[in-house]
Amino acid sequence: MYFALLRDWINAPVQNYRLFKNFTKQDFFAQFSGSVGGLLWLFITPIANILIYAFVFGYVFQLRASPEFGETEFVLFMMVGYLPWFAFADALGKSTGLLLEKAGLITKVMFPVQILPVVCSVIPYLTHFIGFSLLLIYLAWLGYFTSLWLLIPIVYCLQFMFTLGLVAIVSSLSVFLRDLQKLISLALTIWFFLTPIIYPVSLIENESLKSWFLFNPMHSFVMLYRDIILIGEFQAINFSIVIPTSILSYVIGGWFFVRIKHAFGDVL
Predict the structure, then answer these.
(1) Is 228:159 a contact under the CB 8 Å cutoff?
(2) Under DSSP, is residue 73 helix (H, G, I), strand (E, B) or coil?
(3) What is the mean pLDDT of residues 191-197?
(4) What percent of the chain is predicted at pLDDT more than 90?
(5) Neighbour-count burial of 153, counting CB atoms closer than 10 A to its CB (0-12 exposed, 13-18 middle, 19+ buried)
(6) CA dist., res. 235 & res. 254, Å (int)
(7) Distance of CA 81 to the CA centre of its chain
(8) Using CA atoms, how far apart are residues 117 and 166, in angstroms rounded to an integer?
(9) Helix (H, G, I), strand (E, B) or coil at 52
(10) Sign of CA dihedral 181, 187, 192, 193
(11) pLDDT confidence of residue 148
């Protein structure tokens, strides 16, 4: 029973590839429908964010990255962690209304509902990967590129799996618990400040408190990106955390979603 449900979760995007592709394409371009700039916003938005953060944190507050990152500008230090985080937060934030928005489709049509969390996760990761790629191109031009950068797609895919598992759980629970939208919004705000994105973890002097950061998977993802991209190092401890965490999130989240999907129609 368990493996049958898990197989259903894993195979759904493949078996329903055309439907999955159409939903992804439709929702992706719906972000820009009616806008004058269209797809240009994919490039304008991340560039504008980088310039704004560079001015506020680099010029106004004159913040600096931690010493182990050498002469790296603080805005680059921050954006390497911020852009992947934004993809994660965007997907999880949208998951609370995912099934509620598709209620008419779920209740009236024989539909493989398990592809919806995948679509919900793919679109933010595609959107924000463009901004992340622009940042990587700029950093490569500055001379940061090393062979370890080949690991970046692997880390990004693991983060996607981690996100997808959480999106599956949150979207399914939101059908029954409508207050979850407010709770997730609050949780993401707290999670953001508990992840060393706008500050280096070296600022925390208490070693016992610093060790608690290892229980935050997004801390390990952010540190992997920064170590690989900015200083050309690979921390095995962070990689050993994100691999099982991502797989467990994907497996448990998918199994849970498929296990209770039969009840969606009754509630929606």
Answers:
(1) no
(2) strand
(3) 90
(4) 38
(5) exposed
(6) 29
(7) 11
(8) 9
(9) helix
(10) positive
(11) 93
| Spatial separation of the C-alpha atoms in residues 116 and 9, rounded to whole Å | 11
Q: Taking the CA atoms of 106, 118, 40 and 218 in sequence, report the sign of the dihedral they define.
A: positive
Angle at 226 between CA 80 and CA 134, to 5 degrees: 35
Dist CA 135 CA 43 (whole Å)? 11
Task: Report pTM.
Answer: 0.91
Strands (DSSP E) contained in 80-181 are none
Distances (CA, A) of 250 to 178, 244, 256: 23, 10, 10
CA 66/CA 246 separation, integer angstroms = 28
Tokens found for residue 107: 């209740």
Q: Which residues contact 136 (CB under 8 A, 6 or more apart)?
A: 149, 152, 229
- Going by C-alpha positions, the residue among 136, 122, 125, 124 that lies closest to residue 226 is 136
Give residue 154's identity as a one-letter amino acid code. Answer: I
Total residues belonging to the chain: 268
Q: Mind listing the pLDDT tens digit for each residue in 95-154?
A: 998 888 887 777 766 778 899 999 999 999 988 888 899 889 989 998 899 999 999 999
Structure tokens at 213: 């950061």
Residues 6+ apart with CB under 8 A from 25: none
Question: CA torsion, points 33, 100, 168, 5, in degrees to nearest 10?
Answer: -120
Q: How far apart are CA 205 and CA 237, in angstroms?
A: 20
What SS3 state is found at 64?
strand
